[in-house]
Amino acid sequence: MPAACDSVLEDIEDMVSAEDLKPHDRQFVRKNVFPKVRKRTSQNSQADEDPPSDSIIPGVQKIWIRTWGCSHNNSDGEYMAGQLAAYGYKITDNSAEADLWLLNSCTVKNPAEDHFRNSIKKAQEGKKKVVVAGCVPQAQPRQDYLKGLSIIGVQQIDRVVEVVEETIKGHSVRLLGQKKDNGKRLGGARLDLPKIRKNPLIEIISINTGCLNACTYCKTKHARGDLASYPIEELVSRAKQSFQEGVCEIWLTSEDTGAYGKDIGTDLPTLLWKLVEVIPEGAMMRLGMTNPPYILEHLEEMAKILNHPRVYAFLHIPVQSASDSVLMDMKREYCVADFKQVVDFLKEKVPGITIATDIICGFPGETDEDFQETVKLVEQYRFPSLFINQFYPRPGTPAAKMHQVPAAVKKQRTKDLSQLFHSYSPYDHKVGERQRVLVTEESFDSNYYVAHNPFYEQVLVPKDPLLMGKMVEVNIYEAGKHFMKGQLVSDARVYTASITKPLAKGEVSGLREEFRHAPQNGTNWKANPSAETSVKTPLSSWLTLQLPWQQEGDGLKILSVSLALLAVLVMFYYGVMKTER
To answer: Got a GO cellular component term for this one (predicted)?
Structure first.
């Protein structure tokens, strides 16, 4: 998938409660907004201060967004960017020119949080407004370095415009509640929100949030909480919409995709078969990370799905350690034999499948014998994709209180395992093969386009603009540790994977047509699909911001409030006139 300043936060439920606002309460209650207290200043220093909040026009500023962490976090970042852009804010790649920095954090490892903390400091030194999001502030909002900052909780990303607006005015806003329906926790914000895809060809779909485990090293659980799945029909609808916007590859993501549906009476294979039905020819679907216990229940069905021509034969199954005693201390709820059973079965039933895995080096209590078991596992399976992590104790987790392995030992074990991983070449035997690949990205060095074959192995192809978004055939002529290189087959058919022209880079996805050109310049469009016109409402009023994708039958309520205000003004006017007489 911590501890509040002076107490351990065992679960996200400890931090939020029924006090969390319901959608229909938002426009009247502002308890989460903390106005900035303005100090008295002399006339000489007045010019150096920020202008009063009521003189600032929201929706015209430039915003820089930085996201750390997993694909789930990246999807959240895309949704926040889309809503801000749809409202009129300019999303910029230039942090220096931005008026506000939106920092979307990851709490998995110390280095990621250190980068996040340093970015906050840099923004403050540059006199930038700051809004923080992601798992770090959600799990531990009362850390000293977060004091006075606005926070968007992981389930509150649909309210990012409200938070940014108030922050630009100089206020501090903290929204940390959960989405619930009749008391039942939901997967998160709606999936049909406006979004700016980092790559217009790839849609990241979060199928659930949270998990069923309680791993002793994991801090993400404190932020994302227990398992909450999106309904199948909503996920299928989102996939359809993505393909209609030119997407040719979808990634399913969550803290544990294998656990999908256990909270709503369904399961992962049922969802996947429904999604496969709507994937166009030439487009592909990639499955996200799944822990061994849940995939064990569906091995036969998962093998059939992974053999489907529009599903990558790829699965990320973290083992973390090959020592059962270490796995027990981690509370991973499986033994190494379970992991091997999953891998062996899939390798037999899905020829050529790519199995990626994670390993933690130096978990508390790990002995040399424990580590050697892990080394033997890597030697046996020679994983082509292996994520090696030196253990970092995360504050507030049970593992942080355990007896720690010396830092030098952890570092050496990480180095030894990395050397083993780099000692073998997983793709050399594929030189000379003819492969079908889908081209979706540009390489980091900008010298090639990046494609993936049916096993989600990376293939670099010539940088020909005509190939982007296409399914093509290539001859493999070179192999490296993490990639192959392919040359286009001259007589091969080039197949356009997208069913329509993809959105331009930076273009907002997910806007209903009536909102595609609005709102702009700090105003709020109250569009009614059945009406002939739209009413424009200034945001400088006392009403809390209501965006088109947040409105559900609020029109009558606003009309009633407006009439009441008008009545008060009329009564005041006649009172003044009567007094003057």
So the answer is: endoplasmic reticulum membrane
Task: State residue 43's pLDDT score.
Answer: 46
CA dist 454 → 78, 310, 353, 432, 469 (Å): 26, 8, 9, 16, 15
Cα–Cα distance measured from residue 304 to residue 276, given in angstroms and rounded to the nearest whole number: 12
Instruction: Write the pLDDT tens digit of every residue in 37-73.
Output: 445 444 444 444 555 555 577 678 999 999 988 888 8
The residue whose two tokens read 């294979």 is 269
Q: What is the C-alpha separation between 224 and 216, in angstroms, rounded? A: 15
Please give the share of the chain, as a percent, with pLDDT higher than 90.
Answer: 62
Residue with tokens 């892990």: 374
Spans of all domains in the chain: 58-177, 429-496
Going by their DSSP bridges, the two strands 180-181 and 184-185 should be labelled as: antiparallel
How far is C-alpha 47 from the geometric centre of its chain's CA atoms? 40
| pLDDT tens column, 503-517 | 999 999 977 554 444
* Fold of domain 429-496: OB fold (Dihydrolipoamide Acetyltransferase, E2P) (2.40.50)
Residue burial 337-364, b: 16+ Cβ < 10 Å; e: rest: ebbbbbbebbeeebeebbbbbbbbbbbb
Residue whose tokens read 């989405």: 179
What tokens does 240 get? 């359809």
Q: What is the pTM of this model?
A: 0.79
* Whole-number average pLDDT of the chain: 83
Range among 140-154, 173-187, 195-209, 217-231 rated most confident: 195-209
Does the 58-177 domain belong in CATH 3.10.310.10? Answer: no
Q: Tell me 448's DSSP state.
A: S
Structure tokens at 183: 């008391």
* Count of CB atoms situated within 10 Å of the CB of 37: 6
CB-based contacts of 106, cutoff 8 Å, min separation 6: 68, 69, 70, 73, 112, 113, 116, 134, 135, 136
Give residue-wise pLDDT tens across range 519-552. Answer: 444 333 332 322 222 223 333 332 344 555 555 4
Q: Two tokens at 535?
A: 């009413």
List all residues 6 or more positions away from 522 whose beta carbon is below 8 Å from its beta carbon. 57, 58, 59, 60, 88, 538, 539
The CA distance from 530 to 528, in Å, is 5
Q: Note the Cα 288 to chain centre separation in Å.
A: 13
Of residues 192 and 486, more confidence is placed in 486
